[in-house]
Amino acid sequence: MNEPAGDAGGHAGGRAPVTFVLIVTVINMLGVGLAWPILPKLVEELSGGGVSNAALIYGIIATAYALAQFAFSPLIGALSDAWGRKPILLLSQAGLCVDYLVMSLAPNLAWLVAARILAGVLGATVTTANAYMADISTPENRSRNFGYVGAAFGVGFIAGPLIGGVLGAIDLRLPFLFAAVLIGANLVFGLVALPESLPPANRRPFGSSGVSPFGALARLVRFPMLYPLIAALLITNIAQRGLEAIWVLYTGFRFGWSVRDASFSLAFVGAMFVLAQGFMVGPAVARLGEWRAVTIGFLTSALALTAYGFATSGWMVYPLIAVQVTGNALAGPALNAICSKTVPADEQGLLQGTLSSVNSVAIIIGPLAASGVFAAVSATNPLIDVPGAWFLFSGLLFAAGSLLVRVGNRRIAVK
Question: What is the number of H-type helices and E-type strands within the chain?
C-alpha cells in the first residue's frame, strides 16, 4: 500500500486541509441539527394538515433522505477515488448550498422533498471528507485525526439545534438560509486554500462496478477480514440510531421530561463528544492500541445502554450519557482507522462510501425497530412491561459488536 501523503499536521499545504475537512463535517452536522427542530414544523406548515399528518409526511421525507444516502455514498466515494478528493468535496458543498437555498424558499412539499433527497445524495460529502482525512494521515495519527472528525460532529450537534431553535423562532426558513451562507463561505475557502490529497498515481479508474452500495460490498470481497467489522458497525449503528429516534419520547414517558429537558440532554451528548473525541481518543488509542480501544469502547457502551434500561430517574441519565458517549467516541475512530488501513490508497473513497451506506441502512432500520419496540412497551396494555426494552436490546447489540471485532482481529492477524 502506498504511504499517505500527510504528516501530523495534515498535508504539505499545512493545516488548511484538516481545517477544511473539520469545517465540512461541522457544517454538515450543523445542517442536520438545524433541520431537526425546524423541518417538522415546516412540513406541518406546507402540508396544511395536523400534527399527525405532518408526522407521517416527515417520516416519509426522512426515509427518502436515508435511502438517497445509502444509494449514492459509494458512487461519491468512487468518484473521489477516480477524480481526486478536492473536486468532489467542492461539488458537494456547492450542491448543498443550493439545497439549503431551495429549502429556505420551497413553496410546497414537492420542492421540500426534492431538496431533502438532494441533501441525502450530497450529504455523502462526509464520505469524501473521511477519505481525504485518511489520505493526509499517517498510520500513527489516523485514529487521532478521525477523532477530530468525531469532535467536529459533536460541535455541529451542539450548535445545530440551538441555532435552529433561535432562528426558527424568528422565521422557519431562516435556519436554512443561514446554513446556505455558511456552506457558501466554506466553498470559497476550499477553492482558495484546499490542496488535492490524492496523487494521480494513487487514483483508480472509474467504472460501473462498485458505485452501487451492493456493488461496493461486492468489490470489498477481496478484503474478507472487513466483513466482521462492517457487521459490527451495522448492528451498533442500528442500536444508536434507534436510541436517537425514540429519545425524546422515551424520556418524556419514563421520566416526565419536557422537550426542553430532552434538548439539554442532547446538548450534553454533543459536548461529551467534543470532549471525548477531541481530547481523549488520541491518548487512549496510543495507550490501548486500536483493536483494544474498539473492544473496550463497545463493551463500555453496552454497559451504559443496559443501565439506561433500568434507570428510574432522569438524573441518572447524565452520568450514563458520559459513559456511553466515551465508549462510542473511543470505538468509532479506532474502527474507522482499522478499516482504512486494510484497503489500498486508491480505494479509500470506495471504503468510506461503503461505511456511509452501512450507516444509512442503520438510519432506516434503527428508528423503525426502536419505534416498534417502544410502541409495544408504552401502550396502555403493554406487550411486555419493560419501558427500557430497546436500551437493553441495544446493550446486547454492542456486546455482539465487540465479539465481531475479535473475529475481525483474528482474520487480519492470519492474513
Answer: 15, 0
